[in-house]
Amino acid sequence: MIRTTCAYCGVGCGILATPTGARTATIAGDPEHPANSGRLCSKGTHLGETIGLDSRLLHPMIGRKQATWDKALDLVAKRFRDTIAQHGPDSVAFYVSGQLLTEDYYVANKLMKGFIGSANIDTNSRLCMSSAVAGHLRAFGEDVVPANYSDLDVADLIVLVGSNTAWCHPIVYQRIRARCDAGAKLVVIDPRRTETADEADLHLPVKPGTDVALMNGLLAWCRDTGALDEAYLDAHVAVPDGFWDKVAEGYDLWSVAKTCDVPAADLRRFYELFAANPRTVTMFSQGINQSLTGTDQVNAIVNVHLATGRIGKPGAAPFSITGQPNAMGGREVGGLATTLAAHMDFAPDNVARVGRFWAAPTMATAPGLKAVDLFRAIGEGRVKAVWIMATNPAVSMPDADRVRAALADCPFVVVSDVIADTDTSAYAHVRLPAAAWGEKDGTVTNSERVISRQRAFLPLPGDARPDWWIISQVAQRMGWNSAFAYDRPADIWREHCRLSTYQNDGARRFALPGHAARGNTDYDAMQPFRWDETPFADGRFSTPDGRARMVSVAQKPVAGTLDAWPMTLNTGRYRDQWHTMTRTGLSPKLARHREEPLVEVHPDDAQRLGIADGGLARVATPQGDSLYRAQVTPTQRPGELFVPIHWTDRTSTGGRSGRLPRPLADPVSGQPGFKATPARITAVACGWRGFLILRGEAAARPNCLWATRIAVPCGTVWDLAGDGDAARLDVLLPRGERIEAIDSARGTRRTAILQDGRLAAALFVTRDGSLPPRDWLVAQLAEASAAPTLLAGRAPGVQVDRGPIVCACFDIGLHTILTTIADQRLTDVAAIGKAIGAGTNCGSCRPALAKLLLQKGSTHAA
User: Which of 289, 295, 392, 517 is deepest in the core (most CB within 10 A)?
Assistant: First the structure.
């Protein structure tokens, strides 16, 4: 059994991994880890389904040819060295990832900023939490998250802003629910009525982009009702001249209610709850950060906490919760283009200090290109060589088609990844096989500043190597041998710790004293620990005068809709998927919750536009368009759409959400605005629907209008729709014994392929839209012999349909839950868990279970 850390979100859950074979392991939560105390969400629970070698990049590749490490590394070093010599250090760039370990991040940052001499290293964390970084820097003088998870255990009011915590951070959400069950109040501020909002005491469905008005109004309310902490303000906070006059103008209750498009009575209730509960935690995530005014929105939240003294005290804090496992570690080592290292910026004394420590020949002296600008510079030819590590910007960046065009024209693209073929690696001149989770050794930092070890429990497959090793080898080949002569991650960790304390007189709170002396054995045995246990509890901040800064922010006008683009598009995550699905897409259990990319649309809009629930719809913006399956739901505000971010060209002909957002960013943080893109939606008719079930993988992606890949045990399913002759799909069927049933009158055709008596493939197509459930057919892939009722799509006799999966942890379907509720007359979520286990692991399905109970109760009442 190996103690390690989860590969997904910033909650930073501890994991116990027990290898059970060459590429298999059982996964359990670590009961001794402070972040999760043994709990895991559905994604963490099923990590064991993602550690096989299918789709792995196992050898260095130059073009489409396998190469040795020496040849590939020499080529990368030469091309970067030659580009720098000809065009200068700013002609090259790194684009890295919160999936890297701290040691990987450290080496990449050191190479670019200290030796190449450019700050053109940015991270995909720019897309998810850089507005929080910028807001912290403006308010505190340092990027410090001033909260711990334990604050949630004692808060009397918890405010979630722009965060579907029940889905995106389920373990933290269960901590919130436990506190609410003990009497705390929960307020959710989100344009969508999410599963998180369903369980709130108050939901404010604000108009997108009006959070500054909401928080300025709260600040004005606190001042008018005497809820400010004047003593704290006088002792610890610097307030700019004219600040309170600006807050008093236009932020009264009625004006804010109109701006935010929420009932004044609900707004007043929120303000009263906040004023009455000094122990308040305001937790915010992408709904705040991913905005063209994200930094101002962060500071609007922080302003309220500073003005009411709700910071540095138990149960009182503004709390930015991060989306990636090591976004915080990247922030600590300087992985963003706008920071230098160890929470230092590019002030001349910091540049000199880091230069001395690194003995760096060519220090970067100014911030580099942020993500959106970096890829724009590649497209314009200013950046001529780029190294992309552990991320997929051809999918995840805004206006992703422009990013693809930029990569296609770039003279030299290097991609380090664990996956052989991604949408980004298609543009790589060199691909380098990196170690995956389960094979990596190092540290990560979670959202509450807890540093944990990630330990390897699987051997490195093929030629795969750790990212820190790959980067160090390139650095040595570029001529910097001694500076990058690391033998193990512990060497890098010790250097990182020394830098954190080097000539640090206490001006920076980030410091790791004592850890630089850890030997290799102590590093291997490192237990989770938190740096700076209680930030700002002493009332001192990382500013020259030690005082926090109130930042004057104003609500900017929210752009109205245009005739050509009358809708507002929001993007986000699904519960059981992760980023671009290169990992979660391998798990059959995680595929069940949302098998396809859906566009969520309000019933009024659907009726007006002729969009049918379950039909296809095309979402278009000025940047591009993509196809989705429509879900008509009242959880959307009228005039607004929601789409997921996960699907790629490798997994679907639709769902390419990165094509849609504008390549515009917050002017302070550089974080793109994914949450409010002008858009339109139109219904798309098709002549037939179907599905293709295969043992193993398809030889090629189906060539039709709609084709979405779904992982299943022993194979894959493709959900299909299109026009014309569906017979052309036959090319996807493997060789074998063919059995077929055709009903020309109803427009149905069902084909099965058997190999040695076993089901190898099944293709079902219909023109009238009626198809059998797929579960039984999928199960036949594992059977030693095919059932005689294959073409009926069901077993002989009565077949029980579980329905869509609600609880992914235990693979429990909707119909199973509803039947259990009815048969056992269950009345609460705990009773469902006791009866069948649903909701007892990560708890992310508990809001859905509560909704089913309400619906069942309403049915009985009727």
Answer: 289
